[in-house]
């Protein structure tokens, strides 16, 4: 079967293998050059020339929850939607979700998929155990005495995820509010100021016309996270009222009463402000420290108008730090700057190269799984402090390079 990316404008190749047992997966990755495909929503794959694609769609999915510890063990590769609905039925939830639930769990974990919120980093930060089929044999973080961080964020280059254990939390409700009248220059000058205003915050910008499309704030209806977020905003000397005068006058204010189903499933994140235009499916994402984010945004606003035309929406998200091998926020909170692009393909290479130099100049880090123009291995060593560790691991687990290669 031929597979395409999410926008159906780029052919990823043909899936030639649909194993039905894990032993077949082991056989494949040990003996031939191959690549595993999840939901095919990534904007970028390492080493796209690999001809043999494996889908895990025919493998059974098994989910089991320990209600005492609120941990779930998932074997197989369900979509995040399947997992979220199943968890909801058990009275549990993933703390944060990305903007689409069509991704496969393993694809999301291997690409540092994330929502927005400084209380959490990526979905991978919830992983407490992971089991992989590598070209040299099976490997598990608990069985082999290694931290799960080491096996995450490696974009399918060291092994195939077979099962994971994730920490969930009690099911909760989300109140979403969209604030619209926010001064563009204020956002550019202090993009970090919004990060404490809710459990999850996203700022949507139209950089071409110098206006803020809106600030989406999500609060947990009950529970401690929302309260502590308010407290920390006070600690910064700011309050939501200060930002959004007349707070309750915000347009498009909705409170949902049906928990996960309404807030996370029926109203995925970017419905409110960042719904891609038809064809606007390309995304570049980069992660910056607070001071660098400001400088990068200022530089972005003053690029040539020919390139500004390419940018459909800039979304600012926030993330806490983690230690995932090739993750976006190693150890530090980061400001995530996401660019949804219009498909002006003729200008894209030049645009990506400009963004690359702007990102490097500001110590930014790319999001693997998204579009970018980095190829020099010395850049990778700079972006990811643990990249040398990754190279060692690749050599050990995949000495014959059966799986794709980075850099
Ligand atoms: C509409 C849209 C919205 C998006 N929103 C967000 C967002 O809110 N936040 C965000 O962070 N990202 C977002 N993304 C990007 C998305 O997170 C990534 O593309 C994610 O990887 C998609 O998962 P997938 O299952 O489609 O992965 P795929 O594209 O199938 O695979 C991604 C990578 O993981 C590897 N892989 C897949 N399965 C396995 C496995 N079992 N074992 C080992 N490696 C594996 C693949 O080889 C590949 O390198 C969005 C993308 C789209 C199209």
Notes on the structure:
The strands form four sheets. An eight-stranded antiparallel sheet has the order 15-12-14-13-17-18-16-19, with helices on both faces. It is built from twelve helices and 19 strands. The chain is an alpha+beta fold. A hairpin with a 2-residue loop joins strand 8 (127-134) and strand 9 (137-140). The longest helix is centred in the last third of the chain and has 14 residues, at 348-361. It binds flavin-adenine dinucleotide.
Key words describing this protein structure:
407 residues; alpha+beta; Uridine Diphospho-n-acetylenolpyruvylglucosamine Reductase, domain 3; eight-stranded antiparallel beta sheet; five-stranded antiparallel beta sheet; 19 strands; 26% helix; binds flavin-adenine dinucleotide
SSE map:
Elements: E1 2-4, E2 11-17, H1 22-31, E3 35-37, E4 53-55, E5 62-66, E6 71-75, H2 80-89, E7 92-93, H3 105-110, E8 127-134, E9 137-140, E10 160-167, E11 169-170, E12 174-179, H4 184-189, E13 200-206, E14 211-220, H5 224-235, H6 240-243, E15 253-255, H7 259-266, E16 282-288, H8 290-301, H9 305-308, E17 311-319, E18 334-341, H10 348-361, E19 365-366, H11 377-383, H12 387-397
Parallel strand pairs: 2-4, 3-4
Antiparallel strand pairs: 1-2, 5-6, 6-10, 7-11, 8-9, 8-10, 12-14, 12-15, 13-14, 13-17, 16-18, 16-19, 17-18
The structure holds flavin-adenine dinucleotide.
